[in-house]
Queue: 2 jobs
Job 1
Amino acid sequence: MHKALPVVLLVFAATIVAAASRMPLLAQADIPGATLRIEVQQPIADDKAAEIVEWLQSASSNVSLAYGRFPNPSPRVVVIPAGHGSWVGSSPVPFGRVTRDRDEKIEFFVNPDRPIHEFYADWTATHEFSHLLLPYVRSRHKWISEGFASYYQNVLMARAGRYTASEAWQKLYAGFERGRLSRPELSPNEAAVAGVRKARMKIYWSGAAIALLADIELRERSGGRESLDVALDRFQRCCLPSRSSWSGPRLFAKLDSLLDEPVFMPLYRQYADAAGFPDIGPALQRLGVRLDNNSVSVTPHAELADLRIDITSGRPPL
Ligand SMILES: [Zn+2]
């Protein structure tokens, strides 16, 4: 009995060490309006984990550039090493998602072998954090949540200086083209019901087009007093974080109630159940975003050039 004791103790100690090495690293990061509660799962080397925490602080701060603060004061962020499966590819952040239970939690599957500068250039985190600008939207209106996040990922990466303004418009233009060519027989609502596996580009980019149309109309008719940023700022003050599941019309009607005049429900009625793609061409032309010789450029003398610059610079409302 006595001889066995040291062995038992050794085994016990080894178990503790093994368990400790698998313990996630916990960290907090302050950003405007919020403190992130971060959990970095193992194995990720300590120095890379520290770099990843700094990157999360930076990427989540991008979303504060919408209206000055992060939409949720205390979100959970979980970082999971993605391993080496073929799905990981060469991306530093092959996958991210938001889950909403009691808390809003954002999970990032990362490839810790990639250099940290690649994380900063990647849009995935800005996209996922942008989802928190809206509550959970029911899957049959998923084009609203995916569309607004796709619009904001580009706008906010420009405001943060990660993209030039031209790059942001090039990426938006290319996305709208992908959306226009994807499942033209479906309306946004039908595409959402079909699901992301069958209509991903239609879902993401029809919603982004409607976000841009709303942003332009709000800025133009108010002379810069209102914008998509302002609408979402007011929405956060009344309604976020929200534990309920919102239908698209309920969300759009609520946003309209916070504005001088409705813009979202008229767009919903025009496009949500219409096949084809939202009519974005005239808006892009007025913004001065155009295709020349297979490359997208922005022109300084367009009718809405100042408004276009306001969108990517994040100039505060008048
Ligand atoms: Zn998304």
Job 2
Amino acid sequence: MRPQILPALNYSQYSEEIINSKHTSQRRRLKAEKAVVDARVQTMVPALTNLQSIAKVGWRTMTSKALKGCYESSTKALGVLKDQILDDLERQGSVNIEKCPYCMLQSPSTWDHYFPQAHYPEFSIYHGNLVYVCSDCNHEKSDHYSEVQLEYLHPYFYGNVATVILFCKAHIRNGKLGFRFYSATADPAFAALAVIGQRHIVNLKLEIAFQSESSTVVSDFLSSIKEDFPQGISAEQLDRLVRKNYRMVESAYGPNAWEARLWHAIVSFAEFHDYVSVQLPLLPVRHRDGIDQIAPAPPN
Ligand SMILES: [Zn+2]
């Protein structure tokens, strides 16, 4: 989960170009409806800024088909629009085209219509409705939507991009380290955003994906400790490494990336060192007062 900034593009200009690239009958139909469509597009930013969904309108079948056709049949003008969105996102940070903003797990490769085309054909080419995501998220989201409430976080509408709404808590059950991921906030100003965040996690089945990736990250981390600290690692060294990993991931992917939250959870998980010492039998647990530190081998 990662916020992005709505690309600064001129809708009335590119929509005109896309319409002009259509065959005569389609073009005529689209031009006749353009003022109504443009007015609808203008409602999207205020609604999403207030974290509200938008009610559908009943388009005539032929109009709906023509509107969807603006996106579905590829034209040079549509290709230019997609390139412009990607250029803008990349200028904001290369991470935007390397990681899907919905999950921060996979590489993006497809365009999601935040409001599905099947129900909101008038937004089919509006750049505020186009989100560059991974195929898993796009497939999972499909045509799911609600006219009453937002079902997913839209990366362009987080409000404050520094707001942390994804959290992770570590636990040990039956000797196994596990993690729970959820969206929440202690700040009432972001309560509505966190509620949508939780729907987002559930709808996209992200928790299972985050948990399974977390197991891999932790087991790789333990292997690297075994290799780098064959004589054992102190609580302080372990703490330093965990904090370093958190800072690295947080600065690369932002505070709402699952991996940043994972390290954040480990930083504040008091039993982590004990857990590690069970996993790595060589590891002496050293307490902070230093009294029971194990003496290193004497020099030869
Ligand atoms: Zn994704």
